[in-house]
Design a protein that fits this description.
By secondary structure, the chain is mainly alpha-helical. It has a single domain, classed as Winged helix-like DNA-binding domain superfamily/Winged helix DNA-binding domain (Arc Repressor Mutant, subunit A). It has a 3-stranded antiparallel β-sheet with strand order 1-3-2. β2 and β3 form a beta hairpin. α2 crosses α4 and α3 packs across α4.
C-alpha cells in the first residue's frame, strides 16, 4: 500500500507541477523565476545565499534567474550597508505587485480539489497536515 501511495502522490505532484507551470507562464515567468519571486521577502531584502538556499541550489545557480527578474524591473540587487561584499535581492514595487498576483493565482484551488466533497476536502487536509508534520525539513 505504501508503494502505491508513493506512486499516486508522485502522479499528483507532477500534475500540480504542470498546473504551476501553466499559471506562471500566464504571468510570463518561468517556474524558477516564479519560485524565486516567492522566496524573496517583499518587505526585507534577502541575500543571494538565502534565496539560493530556499530554492535548494547554490548562489551561482540563481545569478541568471536574478538577472532576468532584474531586467524586467521585478527585483534589484543591492549591496548590504554593513558588508558591501554581500549582495542582496530586493523586490521592486512592480515585483511586489506581480508576486501578489502570483500568490493569489496559486491560492486558487485546482478543479479536482473543488470536485471533492467537503468531507473529502477536510479529510485530505487533515492527512496532508499530518504528513507535513512527519516529513523531515
Amino acid at each position: 500500500m505504501a508503494q502505491e501511495l508513493s506512486q499516486v502522490f508522485f502522479e499528483l505532484l507532477m500534475k500540480h507541477k504542470m498546473r504551476f507551470s501553466e499559471e506562471v507562464a500566464d504571468l510570463e515567468l518561468s517556474a524558477i523565476q516564479a519560485r524565486t519571486l516567492l522566496c524573496v521577502d517583499p518587505d526585507e531584502p534577502s541575500t543571494m545565499s538565502e534565496v539560493a538556499q530556499q530554492l535548494g541550489c547554490g548562489p551561482s545557480n540563481i545569478t541568471g534567474v536574478i538577472d532576468k527578474l532584474e531586467a524586467r524591473g521585478l527585483v534589484e540587487r543591492r549591496l548590504r550597508s554593513d558588508d558591501r561584499r554581500i549582495k542582496t535581492v530586493a523586490m521592486t514595487r512592480k515585483g511586489v505587485a506581480l508576486r501578489k498576483r502570483l500568490t493569489e493565482r496559486l491560492a486558487q484551488p485546482a478543479p479536482w480539489m473543488v470536485a471533492l466533497s467537503s468531507q473529502d476536502q477536510r479529510q485530505l487536509v487533515d492527512i496532508l497536515r499530518r504528513a507535513i508534520e512527519l516529513a523531515p525539513d
